[in-house]
Amino acid sequence: MGDLEFYLLHKPQVKPLKLTWKRDQPSINKTLTKDLRSFLVLFAHGTWPEGIDDFTVVADGNGEEKCELGKLNPSRRALYYDLKDSCLGGDGDIRLMIKSSSRKVEDTLRETTAIRGIPNQRIRKMQETETASPNRSHRKVEKDKSLSLSSSKKRKKSNDDAATPETDLSSRGTSTSRRLRLSENLKKQDVSPGTKRSSPPKSVPVVVTSDDWPGQRWGHAMCATGPDTLILVGGQGANQVISKDALWELNSVDLSWKVPEVEHIPSRPDLRTGHTVAYDEILKLVYVFGGSKNVRWYNDLFVLDVTKNKWSLIETTGKAPTRAYHTSTLYRGELFVFGGIYPNPNLEPDSCSNDLYIFSSVNKSWYEPLVFGSKPKARSGHSATLLGDKLVIFGGWDAPVCFNDVHILDLGLMEFSSPDVSGAPPSPRSWHAACPLSDNRVLIHGGYNGYQALSDAFVFSLDSLSWQQVTLNGTGPLGVRAGHILCSVSDNPDDQESEKILMFGGGDNEDNFFNDLHRVTITES
Predict the structure, then answer these.
(1) Max alpha carbon distance in the chain (Å)?
(2) Which of 189, 311, 352, 373 could form a disulfide with 416 if both were Cys (CB 3.0 to 4.6 A apart)?
(3) Nearest CA to 144 among 170, 113, 177, 111?
(4) What is the pLDDT of residues 462-504, one digit of tens each?
């Protein structure tokens, strides 16, 4: 890594300005003309100079008022600032100053949050081995609670990408911890850079962890094993700690939790996050596949026999994909695994996938099917919801690009399609929650858009290929959240009246994690 340099992004799709810092130059000054007044993204790249604790970013407009925009330090290498919502009013030029820690700034407006990407899958100290993001937009990241925007290797960019490597506003990285997390300190409002922020939603109530209630977490997996029972597996909580209370059973009638007594000799799944679960109603088995923990990535396949309460590791043949933050769907005795993150060898950056793998429960083998149509772009953090014989894939990201596209995989024809849809779709997002509803519909809630967690909800109708925004009502305030779970359970899947929708866990993108449980109802907007 070379000497420290600063990069200033002031317009989407425009290459950042390079600002070089020299030790004998205590501050960097840059004048921005009035047409560059929407927002600022500033990030530092290179080796942090010895003896410098941080840099203070200060701006003044027309020489009348001085604002402190934020600080950059080794663990916070980027900041975003909304110029429209600041003391820098007016239409004149502004002067930006980047000053080393020896210079004290007296007039402060507010410290701007560092741009951090959620779903950092793996975290490593900046000084460690070269790292990069799973989408090949290679970034270095830090082992503490933040992500940086400093670039190491730069990925080859396809013509379809929505931003150049220099304009990444979020990052994911390769690291020793390989942990999924929500970025802290970003505001909760559903806004984009340059948009005036409104008041944040009310905070989400958090249930105190106890012996009869799961701990706070996100990145967990959950599925119904009957009309009254759901199984919760894994996840990760505060301080990037993998949840040790990894297996819970929920009674959907009285909303009570218990830890099932499960036999796990000779083996059971390691603690993990970014995995998936799927339930086989015929064999009464819960399949747990993939995920990651610290430096480990998994391609093992475990089953939990809910009749015998016993874990088993399936010995498989064929090439099992190593995946995390993918989707798994059980259909006619086969497990369909799509997308996700996979590690590359020799410390190369990990990558997003758009491959489809199938596990056959009959012959215990993995294979890649012949698929027709155009596959979705590589992604992770997406959702895949089964409606009949159609798999509805929505959203996800290959950082820095978030998606809000809809793809349908016909499991009978094994053909992808990208239909034209009507109605106002959800904004691009990943790490949202999704579940099937009656009448061939999918419910989408929350997620992360590369800047903050979201709180809105939408219903997609497969029959009409249309979106409708809706309002979710919980047993308490839902707030913003990502990395949570929605599950629908019903005695009769075709009876909307008997349908129960449950929401559990997640995080609010401010380093808060939840273990609240909601019985959710839908109100059409």
Answers:
(1) 75
(2) 373
(3) 177
(4) 999 999 999 999 988 999 999 999 999 876 655 656 688 999 9
